[in-house]
């Protein structure tokens, strides 16, 4: 039997965040679901109107966080777990593209996540259920991929930040779980126009993530075969940079 928790999930309107929201709603927890897509959030609410609260906002708006603490407080004073699953992916088609693309990706995938965690902290401190921060990074941060200069850098920054926070939050008894998925079938990857090795279904991915969260793992990297292959290629870097990665790359349009 699970203790009933209060969980706040960003990126709950689609893909991985939505799958996790459904899983935790089905387990009977009180879940605050965030994203921009009001209709998708309302559909989650219909699963358990007493225990699901939509909290809609746009992470790319400069002042998105100003009213957030008060809006959260309308629903709860305590959060036991925050899941930071919101994210965007934009590929760099021109290596000399301007900073705007980098800023858009970093804004949502790094700065907004840090800000949500910062806001969640004051609610997590009230938890009596061993609070937990869960962040969704990416295996893309573990090996450089072509056209992933912005996305990979944003995920690498987020992953490093979470790993550092884990150390700084030990004295506050707040656990940090970093989830690094490979390819998962979601609206985000459905836009990809290249082969995705070891692509997992959303269900498979969410089962792995939920298990890892419940075990309070520091790192949930999956699928294991892809994670290990990337680790090995990192060691054999001349094979990666010399042969495999250039095959995946397109001709540079400088
Ligand atoms: N799918 C994969 O293979 C894969 C692999 C590695 C890592 N990841 C990471 O997993 C996370 C979830 O990705 P996904 O594949 O599930 O993608 P997705 O289906 O596109 O979901 C992305 C979520 O982020 C939210 N979001 C994006 N921009 C936002 C904004 N400006 N303000 C508020 N919410 C925003 C979206 O909500 P709205 O559209 O409603 O705003 C949506 O709920 C991301 O961090 C992604 O980088 C995914």
In short:
β6, α6 and β7 form a beta-alpha-beta unit.
Task: Report strand order across the widest sheet.
Answer: 3-2-1-4-5-6-7
Kindly report the name of the CATH homologous superfamily.
NAD(P)-binding Rossmann-like Domain
> Please, how many domains?
1
**Name of the CATH architecture:** 3-Layer(aba) Sandwich
- The total count of strands amounts to 7
Bound molecules: NADP nicotinamide-adenine-dinucleotide phosphate
Largest sheet: 7 strands, parallel
Tell me what you see in this structure.
With 254 residues, the chain is an alpha/beta fold. The protein has a single domain (6-248), classed as Rossmann fold, CATH 3.40.50. Helices cover 44% and strands 14% of the residues. Strands 3-2-1-4-5-6-7 form a 7-stranded parallel β-sheet, sandwiched between helices. Helix 1 crosses helix 6.
Task: Present the secondary structure layout.
Layout: E1 6-10, H1 15-26, E2 30-35, H2 38-47, E3 52-56, H3 68-73, E4 81-84, H4 99-124, E5 132-136, H5 149-168, E6 175-181, H6 202-214, E7 219-222, H7 224-235, H8 237-248
Parallel strand pairs: 1-2, 1-4, 2-3, 4-5, 5-6, 6-7
Helix pairs in contact: 1-6, 4-5
Bound molecules: NADP nicotinamide-adenine-dinucleotide phosphate (NAP).
NADP nicotinamide-adenine-dinucleotide phosphate (NAP) binds at residues 11-17, 35-37, 58-60, 85-89, 108, 136, 138, 181, 183-184, 186-189.
């Amino acid at each position: 039997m699970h203790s009933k928790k209060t969980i706040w999930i960003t990126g709950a309107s689609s893909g991985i965040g939505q799958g996790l929201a459904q899983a935790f709603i089905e387990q009977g927890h009180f879940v605050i679901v965030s994203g921009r897509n009001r209709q998708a959030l309302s559909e989650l609410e219909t699963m358990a109107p007493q225990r699901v609260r939509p909290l809609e906002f746009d992470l790319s708006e400069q002042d998105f966080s100003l009213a957030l603490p008060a809006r959260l407080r309308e629903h709860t004073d305590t959060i036991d777990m925050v899941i930071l699953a919101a994210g965007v992916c934009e590929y760099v088609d021109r290596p000399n593209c301007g900073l705007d693309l980098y800023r858009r990706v970093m804004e949502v995938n790094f700065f907004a996540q840090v800000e949500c965690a910062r806001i969640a902290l004051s609610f997590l401190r009230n938890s009596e259920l061993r609070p937990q921060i869960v962040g969704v990074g990416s295996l893309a941060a573990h090996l450089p991929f072509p056209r992933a200069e912005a996305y990979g850098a944003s995920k690498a920054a987020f992953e490093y930040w979470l790993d550092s926070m884990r150390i700084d939050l030990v004295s506050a008894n707040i656990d940090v779980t970093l989830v690094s998925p490979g390819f998962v079938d979601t609206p985000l990857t459905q836009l990809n126009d290249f082969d995705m090795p070891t692509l997992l279904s959303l269900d498979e991915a969410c089962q792995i993530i939920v298990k890892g969260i419940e075990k309070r793992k520091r790192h949930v990297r999956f699928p294991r075969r892809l994670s290990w292959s990337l680790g090995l290629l990192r060691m054999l870097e001349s094979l990666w940079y010399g042969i495999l990665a250039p095959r995946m790359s397109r001709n540079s349009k400088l």
